[in-house]
Design a protein that fits this description.
Helices cover 37% and strands 20% of the residues. It is of the alpha/beta class.
């Protein structure tokens, strides 16, 4: 099995903070600021509003619409300038389809990481609902740090990832994400727990100890040997309840072990591979219900 190389710091030069100025976005802001400072990155604050459909409005009202957009842009710029003070930053404003505008901004500014607050499943007519946030972490070409509705607010200076939980199904997407988990653990000399949840069929899993020993061995194979010299690594093999999704067990372990970051590899939306452990609904459920931020890396 492929083993990753340790000691290579992930490169974060440009970070995008997508905001609708809701309380959920405000909870995500300190994480964006703290990571930008730690990596010396430029932080782009982006706000996107849906475009007005001028086709269904009289031409004589168009100038008023344009004036309203210009005024809104000035207000957004002033607000983001205040929020992003203290780090290298740039304010981005867009009008149109939210995801399409963000995707363009990600490409234009060579974004290495997106930080976004999510409302969970749905919400009132806000810019970053759960569905939009899911589009971001499912389709973005760079990693996404999602701060869900159950994550408590923290002051900017109090953010450190001291216990990172990496959940894996041993697929290629997970291996791609493991490099980030190891690098972040090395950055803060954090605890790192690797977790695999064994899904139980209707009849249950026989020979539990044999299965646990086999899976533990697989977990150890994917971690470079030198990592254990500077990092407290734990290898966790858990058995999910019958008919229960793996996401529930992953969330339980994260809470029980007081993890302050969950790292997941996710499949792109165009993937046609078999849906298994960290499938579409698993990642979505974890992001929506986790009590800590979730870093998703698209395979």
């Amino acid at each position: 099995m492929k083993t990753l190389e340790a000691g290579k710091r992930i490169a974060l030069k440009n970070i995008l903070f997508a905001t609708d100025f809701s309380p959920h976005s405000n909870t995500a802001l300190p994480y964006a600021l703290a990571i930008a400072r730690q990596y010396g990155a430029r932080l782009f604050g982006a706000h996107v509003v849906p475009s007005e459909d001028y086709l269904f409005s009289a031409p004589d009202t168009w100038p008023a619409h344009i004036q309203q957009e210009e005024q809104l842009q000035q207000e957004v710029t002033a607000r983001l300038e205040e929020q992003l003070r203290g780090v290298q930053h740039e304010v981005l404003f867009g009008v149109g389809d939210i995801w399409k505008v963000l995707a363009r901004l990600i490409g234009e500014h060579d974004i290495d990481l997106i930080v976004v607050g999510t409302h969970g499943r749905t919400g009132a007519r806000k810019l970053l609902m759960g569905s939009v946030a899911e589009k971001i972490f499912r389709q973005a070409v760079c990693p996404v740090l999602s701060v869900g509705p159950n994550v408590p607010s923290k002051p900017d200076g109090g953010i450190h990832f001291q216990h990172i939980l990496f959940a894996t199904d041993f697929g290629q997407e997970s291996l791609d994400a493991l490099h980030y988990a190891i690098s972040l653990a090395e950055e803060d000399q954090s605890k790192l727990s690797l977790l695999h949840v064994v899904e139980q069929p209707a009849a249950g899993v026989l020979h539990l100890e044999e299965v646990k020993a086999s899976v533990t061995s697989r977990l150890k194979e994917i971690v470079p040997p030198e990592v254990e010299s500077w990092c407290d690594v734990k290898y966790l093999v858990e058995f999910g309840r019958q008919f229960a999704p793996p996401a529930e067990r992953i969330l339980e372990i994260a809470r029980d072990r007081a993890a302050d970051l969950i790292v997941l590899g996710v499949r792109p939306t165009h993937s046609v591979s078999t849906v298994t452990h960290l499938a579409h609904t698993t990642a979505q459920h974890i992001v929506a219900h986790a009590t800590c931020p979730v870093l998703t890396i698209r395979g």
